[in-house]
Structure formats: C-alpha cells, structure tokens
Design brief:
Layout (H helix, E strand, L loop, with lengths): L1 H8 L7 H22 L5 H18 L3 H22 L1 E2 L2 E2 L8 H24 L6 H21 L4 H19 L3 H31 L1
Antiparallel strand pairs: 1-2
Helix pairs in contact: 2-3, 2-8, 3-4, 4-5, 4-6, 5-6, 6-7, 7-8
C-alpha cells in the first residue's frame, strides 16, 4: 500500500503548495469537461478552458514546452468549439454529430502533421534535449490536436483519437512518476470509450428518425 501511495504522492513532497492546488483544480475541471463532452453538453468548453489555462501555466513552470503548446491550442479550440456548438438557426442547433468525410480526414491528417512538426521545432528553438519520451509527446500532440478539432465540429471520430492518445499517455506519465496525471488520463480513457458509445448511439438514432 505504501508503494502505491508513494507512486501517486512522492513527487508532491517538495512541490509548492500553490502548484499542487492548481493541479487539483485542473484535474477536477478536466474530468468535468470530458463528462460534459460525453453528454454533448456545451459546458465542455468553459470547464475545459479553465483546465487548459491552469495546465498551461503548470507546464510552463515545469518547462514542458510541447505539453504547454498543446494546451494553448486546446484553449483556442475551446473558444472556437464553444462558439460553433452554440450556433443556432430558428432555435435549433446547427452543428450535429456526424462522421468525418474524406475532406475532413485529410484536414485532420494535415493538422496532425502540423502540430507534431510545430512541437518538434519548439523543442529545437528553446534548445531542449529531445529524448524518446519527448518524441512520444510530439506524436500524441498531433493526435490530440486533430481530436480537439473533430470535437469542435462534432465528429464521432474525435473519441477514437482521444482513446488512442489517452491510452499512450497513461503509461508515459506513469513512467515519469506523475501518478495523478497518469490517473487522470486513465479516467479520460474510460470516459472517452463511454463518449464514443454515447455519441454513436445518438448518431444512429438521428439517422433512424431522419
């Protein structure tokens, strides 16, 4: 039992109290955001924005520049998604859950390449040594970027990408000793699976009634 406790909390023994509190807030709002996303509730964006802004500061403090840039993009995309989901015509929402078409798949792939490439050059610009785990960060950043855009335009495939990237991130963060962050992404993975099933059910129901 003590080994489990040490895994989750050892890293916090010498960490400033305010950073621990900020991480706890980011944890809470991050989980809330995914829960709202699963329910197709627009509160996914304000809660997610709080989480990403806090996380940006924490990653900047810890000099995790690639992760910080991912969360900057999350913040900007949250603003866009908030606007897009809130658009209505004659009182009805304009954006509905759909699958990606060939054009959107292509844009998603370009986003993946652009995000991964940008993060690589950020590491180079700031002269940060790139190790094996940093390359995994670069890979997941591209997946997360595309997933965030797909969510903003309500594409079912956003959940497939979240599941993939979250699954990779769980052992990555665990290997770094970030027990709480690893636990958070494990919860994200479970919620993403549930989100996929919920959105697919809604999409199938909408097709039957149209």
């Amino acid at each position: 039992m003590s080994h489990i406790f040490d895994f989750f909390f050892e890293i916090y023994r010498e960490r400033e109290i305010y950073l621990i509190l900020l991480e706890a807030l980011a944890f809470f709002f991050g989980i809330a955001s995914v829960v709202y996303a699963k329910r197709e509730n627009i509160l996914v964006y304000p809660t997610g924005l709080v989480a990403t802004l806090i996380t940006m500061y924490i990653f900047f403090h810890d000099r995790l520049l690639g992760d910080m840039m991912i969360n900057l993009y999350y913040s900007l995309m949250s603003i866009y998604g908030w606007w897009n989901w809130s658009r209505k015509k004659e009182g009805a929402a304009i954006v509905h859950i759909t699958r990606t078409n060939l054009r959107e798949k292509g844009i998603g792939f370009l986003l993946f390449l652009g995000a991964a490439g940008l993060n690589y050059f950020i590491y180079r610009i700031f002269d940060v040594e790139i190790g094996p785990t940093n390359y995994i960060d670069i890979l997941t950043s591209g997946i997360f970027f595309t997933a965030m855009w797909y969510m903003a335009i309500k594409k079912l495939e956003n959940w497939t990408l979240w599941i993939l990237a979250d699954t990779i991130t769980v052992p990555l963060y665990a290997s770094r000793g970030w027990g709480m962050l690893s636990l958070q992404y494990l919860i994200f993975t479970i919620l993403a699976v549930q989100g996929y099933l919920e959105w697919k059910k809604r999409l199938d129901n909408s097709r039957q009634t149209s």
